[in-house]
Amino acid sequence: MEPVALFLMRTFFSKTTLFLVALSMFCTMALSVHAAEDFEDLTLFDPDSTAAIDHSAWDAILNAYVTPSSDGVNRFDYGRVTFEDKQSLEGYVHALEAIDLSRYNRNEQFAFWANLYNAVTVNLVIDAYPVASIRKIKSGAFSSGPWSKKRIQIGARELSLDDIEHKVLRKYWRDPRVHYALNCASIGCPNLPRKAFTGQMLNVALDAAARTYINHSRGAHIDKGKLTVSSIYHWYREDFGNSDQGVIDHLMQFAQSPFAQELASIQKISNHDYDWSLNDVTTN
Fold first, then answer.
1. Residue 117's Cα: distance from chain center in Å?
2. Structural domain total, the chain
3. Are the C-beta atoms of residues 122 and 93 closer than 8 Å to each other?
């Protein structure tokens, strides 16, 4: 007869194995469903539309609380936001949620998504403030930040910040300048703009954001002949040609002297890094 202790141990491990297999299958199915989510209906547009979305409330917030610092990073004064301005910010987000996007052209839609992403991010940080990093704001027990939680509703669709970035902007615009438009409330991120994006001035604003970031040390810098880039170019390498040379070619489009001359002789990326510290005025 099998000893009781051995029987109990074998039973325990058997049930544990079954549980882990079931959990693995559930997670796989959940990821498949998540990956299959499609927001193409939110990208229907009117190419002939000249209508513009009102971003004046967001402009007022940016004008009041975004400050360029001496180190080249635009910082937000989260701790100084008044109750009235917080209400205005939340009202702005709700107003965007109610918009019928199909009435607008593609540039106007891009501006809509970028401003919405940035406004929701700022609102999240204000709610959690004081906080050292946006990564401290969790979507769940095992999350690395706030990005995967559904926080916005456009029509009948609930969306997360990840959905806006990866399943709308990156997927349907396929423009690497997306990465210069979205701000994750971190020092390492491209600057939070001081003015809202608009469809009319979109390309000018995106090019300016790219130049500012690429010519700042947190975007890319060369030390002793070795190129270090922002981890953005590592995480989203596929958006920049999917190779070291592709990233370098992209950097060269916006690089200015003397960085451009240094970059012209570089053939590979040596390292990447990123600073997740909050882009707060108090960290300056």
1. 7
2. 2
3. no
Does residue 15 form part of some domain?
A: no
Contacts of 180 (CB under 8 A, 6+ apart): 190, 206, 209, 210, 212, 213
Q: Under DSSP, is residue 132 helix (H, G, I), strand (E, B) or coil?
A: coil
Chain centroid to Cα 97, Å, comes to: 19
What does the DSSP 8-state code read for residue 174? -
**Which domain covers residue 176, as residue numbers?**
40-199
**Rounded to an integer, what distance in angstroms lies between the CA atom of residue 180 and that of residue 117?**
12
pLDDT tens-digit series, residues 45-65:
999 999 999 999 999 999 999
pLDDT band at 103 (very low <50, low <70, confident <90, very high): very high
Phi/psi for 168 (5° steps) reads -115, -70
CA–CA gap between residue 255 and residue 129 (Å, rounded): 35
Tell which residue, 51, 121, 63, 61, has the closest CA to residue 87.
Answer: 61
- CA angle (73 as vertex; 172, 110 as ends), nearest 5: 20
Q: What is the pLDDT of residue 142?
A: 82
193 and 225 together in one domain: no
Tokens describing residue 28:
């796989």
C-alpha to C-alpha distance for 231 and 240, rounded to whole angstroms: 12
